[in-house]
Amino acid sequence: MKKIIIFSLILLMTATVGCKRDFLDINVSPNSVTPGSISPDLILPRAEHAIGARMATSYRTYGSWCGYWSRSGTYGPNAEEESYNITSGFGAGEWSGWYDILTDLDIMEKRQMFWDKPFMKVLPKH
Fold first, then answer.
1. For residue 44, is it within any domain?
2. Segment 59-113, tens digit of pLDDT
3. In which domain, by residue range, is 47 found?
4. Is position 2 within any domain?
5. In this structure, is residue 21 part of a structural domain?
6. Looking at the 3D structure of the chain, how many domains does it have?
7. How many degrees, rounded to 5, is the angle at CA 74 between CA 70 and CA 76?
8. DSSP assignment of 40-103, as one string?
């Protein structure tokens, strides 16, 4: 019985030590976009569009609170927004959208030195 337990432990240790995490990771696309493979020229139009879209559509809640906008009588109320019953996930979509834009601008700023485009370093800072 003792030999079977020792053999099982040795077999288990050999199996766990011999396997790597990326053993089955064979489907890596060579065409996938990474921060190192993209040019700042391709990031800038997308970032500008995303900033414009955010600025045009993102402040409905705050406009309602300040009294700039109000809903019509036939529109269903947003109870969380109108009662100021704010939960921890209230601005999560807003934050993730802005964070995505800031990540693009950060990549553009860092990649400009590799592409020899010094004006791309100034744009994300304004």
1. yes
2. 777 777 777 777 777 777 777 777 777 788 777 788 888 899 998 888 887 777 7
3. 38-125
4. no
5. no
6. 1
7. 75
8. HHHHHHHHHHHHHHHHHHTTHHHHHHHTS----TTSPP-HHHHTT---TTTTHHHHHHHHHHHH
